[in-house]
Design goal:
mainly beta, Trefoil (Acidic Fibroblast Growth Factor, subunit A), two-stranded antiparallel ribbon, globular
Protein backbone atom coordinates (compact mmCIF):
# COMPACT_ATOMS: atom_id res chain seq x y z
CA UNK A 1 0.00 0.00 0.00
CA UNK A 2 1.01 3.56 -0.52
CA UNK A 3 2.99 5.24 2.24
CA UNK A 4 0.57 8.13 2.77
CA UNK A 5 -0.01 9.56 6.21
CA UNK A 6 -3.53 9.08 7.45
CA UNK A 7 -4.76 6.68 4.76
CA UNK A 8 -8.44 5.78 5.18
CA UNK A 9 -10.40 2.93 3.65
CA UNK A 10 -13.59 3.67 1.77
CA UNK A 11 -15.56 0.50 1.19
CA UNK A 12 -18.38 -0.40 -1.14
CA UNK A 13 -18.59 2.97 -2.86
CA UNK A 14 -18.65 1.75 -6.41
CA UNK A 15 -18.69 -2.03 -6.26
CA UNK A 16 -15.07 -2.45 -7.19
CA UNK A 17 -14.72 0.81 -9.14
CA UNK A 18 -13.07 2.43 -6.17
CA UNK A 19 -11.68 0.75 -3.08
CA UNK A 20 -9.68 3.35 -1.19
CA UNK A 21 -9.49 6.90 -0.06
CA UNK A 22 -5.89 8.03 0.26
CA UNK A 23 -4.38 11.21 1.59
CA UNK A 24 -3.12 13.61 -1.08
CA UNK A 25 0.14 12.58 -2.71
CA UNK A 26 3.21 14.80 -2.79
CA UNK A 27 2.31 16.08 -6.29
CA UNK A 28 -1.21 17.10 -5.30
CA UNK A 29 -2.14 20.77 -5.09
CA UNK A 30 -1.17 22.53 -1.83
CA UNK A 31 -3.89 22.32 0.80
CA UNK A 32 -5.32 25.05 2.98
CA UNK A 33 -6.04 24.30 6.65
CA UNK A 34 -7.47 20.79 6.23
CA UNK A 35 -5.20 18.28 4.44
CA UNK A 36 -8.26 16.14 3.61
CA UNK A 37 -10.36 18.96 2.12
CA UNK A 38 -9.61 18.00 -1.50
CA UNK A 39 -8.45 14.43 -1.96
CA UNK A 40 -8.25 12.03 -4.88
CA UNK A 41 -10.17 8.80 -4.56
CA UNK A 42 -7.50 6.28 -5.52
CA UNK A 43 -7.72 2.53 -5.87
CA UNK A 44 -5.64 0.78 -3.22
CA UNK A 45 -4.33 -2.02 -5.46
CA UNK A 46 -3.91 0.00 -8.68
CA UNK A 47 -1.26 2.68 -8.25
CA UNK A 48 -2.03 6.09 -9.77
CA UNK A 49 -5.57 5.06 -10.74
CA UNK A 50 -8.41 7.18 -9.44
CA UNK A 51 -12.05 8.17 -9.83
CA UNK A 52 -12.71 10.86 -12.43
CA UNK A 53 -15.66 12.68 -13.96
CA UNK A 54 -14.20 11.88 -17.38
CA UNK A 55 -14.47 15.51 -18.49
CA UNK A 56 -18.29 15.54 -18.52
CA UNK A 57 -20.17 18.47 -16.99
CA UNK A 58 -23.65 16.97 -17.49
CA UNK A 59 -26.07 16.09 -14.71
CA UNK A 60 -25.95 12.31 -14.07
CA UNK A 61 -22.53 12.00 -15.77
CA UNK A 62 -21.16 8.52 -15.10
CA UNK A 63 -17.88 8.42 -13.21
CA UNK A 64 -14.90 6.62 -14.70
CA UNK A 65 -11.64 5.15 -13.47
CA UNK A 66 -8.58 6.78 -15.00
CA UNK A 67 -4.92 7.61 -14.56
CA UNK A 68 -4.44 10.10 -11.73
CA UNK A 69 -3.63 13.70 -12.53
CA UNK A 70 -3.83 17.03 -10.73
CA UNK A 71 -6.99 17.95 -12.66
CA UNK A 72 -9.99 19.20 -10.63
CA UNK A 73 -12.12 16.47 -12.23
CA UNK A 74 -10.29 14.01 -9.95
CA UNK A 75 -10.47 15.99 -6.72
CA UNK A 76 -13.19 15.35 -4.19
CA UNK A 77 -14.16 16.94 -0.88
CA UNK A 78 -15.62 14.96 2.00
CA UNK A 79 -18.42 16.91 3.64
CA UNK A 80 -20.43 15.06 6.27
CA UNK A 81 -21.77 11.99 4.48
CA UNK A 82 -21.45 13.50 0.97
CA UNK A 83 -18.53 13.31 -1.46
CA UNK A 84 -18.46 16.65 -3.33
CA UNK A 85 -16.84 17.27 -6.70
CA UNK A 86 -14.34 20.13 -6.58
CA UNK A 87 -14.77 20.83 -10.30
CA UNK A 88 -18.56 21.08 -10.44
CA UNK A 89 -20.05 23.23 -7.70
CA UNK A 90 -22.97 21.61 -5.94
CA UNK A 91 -22.57 18.10 -7.40
CA UNK A 92 -21.95 14.95 -5.38
CA UNK A 93 -21.33 11.26 -6.02
CA UNK A 94 -24.61 9.31 -6.17
CA UNK A 95 -25.85 5.81 -7.01
CA UNK A 96 -29.37 4.68 -8.00
CA UNK A 97 -28.78 1.10 -6.94
CA UNK A 98 -27.52 -0.89 -4.00
CA UNK A 99 -26.62 -3.82 -6.27
CA UNK A 100 -23.02 -4.82 -6.91
CA UNK A 101 -21.87 -3.65 -10.32
CA UNK A 102 -23.96 -0.49 -10.34
CA UNK A 103 -22.26 2.67 -11.58
CA UNK A 104 -21.87 5.87 -9.53
CA UNK A 105 -22.59 9.21 -11.18
CA UNK A 106 -22.72 12.93 -10.38
CA UNK A 107 -25.88 14.82 -9.49
CA UNK A 108 -26.81 18.04 -7.71
CA UNK A 109 -26.89 17.62 -3.95
CA UNK A 110 -30.39 17.31 -2.54
CA UNK A 111 -31.97 17.15 0.90
CA UNK A 112 -35.02 14.98 0.15
CA UNK A 113 -35.04 11.43 1.52
CA UNK A 114 -34.70 9.88 -1.98
CA UNK A 115 -31.71 12.15 -2.76
CA UNK A 116 -30.09 11.35 0.59
CA UNK A 117 -30.49 7.64 -0.12
CA UNK A 118 -28.57 8.03 -3.41
CA UNK A 119 -25.93 10.49 -2.17
CA UNK A 120 -24.85 9.62 1.37
CA UNK A 121 -21.72 7.48 1.93
CA UNK A 122 -19.88 6.25 5.02
CA UNK A 123 -16.26 5.47 5.81
CA UNK A 124 -15.90 2.15 7.58
Amino acid sequence: MRKAAGSLLLTAVAAGTMTGLAAPSADAAPQAKDPYAHVRLERVWAARTGLSMGGSTKQNAQLTVGKCSSDKSQRWELGGSLIWSEAHNGKVIASNSTKAGSHPYLEKAGSSNPARGRQEWDLS
